[in-house]
Amino acid sequence: MSAQHLPGAATGEVRRLVVLRHGRTAWNAEGRAQGHSDVPLDRFGHAEAALAAPWVARYRPVALWSSDLARARETAAYVAKESGLDPVYDARLREFALGERTGLTNEEFAARFPAQAEALRAGRWDPVPGMETSEKLAARVSAALVALVEQIEPGETAVAVAHGGAIKVGVSALLGWSAETAQALRHPVNCGWAVLEYEGPLSAGRWRLAAWNLSAPDPDFTSSPPVR
After folding, report:
1. pLDDT for 29-41, tens place per residue?
2. The whole model's pTM is what?
3. Which of 12, 34, 73, 119 lies at a 20 to 30 A Cα distance from 154?
4. Are both 78 and 140 inside the same structural domain?
C-alpha cells in the first residue's frame, strides 16, 4: 500500500470518503441474510468496531453518516467516540431490501428459491418477492454518498457506515462500473472499509478507488491496516 493511502488528512483538491461496513452480528455468524432487519452487533461485532474506530478516526473526518439500522448505528457510535463527530443517520445507506429472502441461510435460500440461488452463484441478482433490485440499491446508496461528499470541502474527509452489499454496489455505481465488473470486488469484511477520492469540482469531477477492504490490524501488530 502506498503512503498516500495511509490514514491522515486528505490533501489538495481531493475530497475523501471512507466507507465502513458494520461489525459482526449473530445473523452474520449464522450466515443469515439480514437486509433491512434491525439486527444488533454481537459481542464480537462490538470488539471489531472498537478496534476499527481509532483507525478510521486517523483519517481525520469532519463528517460522519450512517445507515439507520442498529448494526450500523452501533458501529458508527465507536467512530463517533474516537472522532468527536455526531452521526447523521440516513436510510439510503441501508442494505438491500431482501424481501422473502430475509432471515434465510444460503442453504434455505437455495431450497426455497433455486432459480434465484443459481443466478446468484453466476453473479446475477434475480429478485425474489419483495426484494430490491441492484439498480435501485445502486441509485439510493450512491446518491447518499454523493450528498455526503457535497457536505465537505477539498482536503477534507467524510465517513459513511453502511452494509456489505450496499457498499459494494454503491461504490461500483460511483465508479461507473457495470454489474459484471462489480463482481470482481471481494465482499467487504465486517468492519472493513474502502477509501474513495473525488477530485475536481463537484459538478464535473472524478471518482477514484484508492483502497478496498482495509481492516484494522491485530492489536499486537502496529503497522498500517492490511488489505485482506
Report:
1. 999 999 999 999 9
2. 0.89
3. 73
4. yes
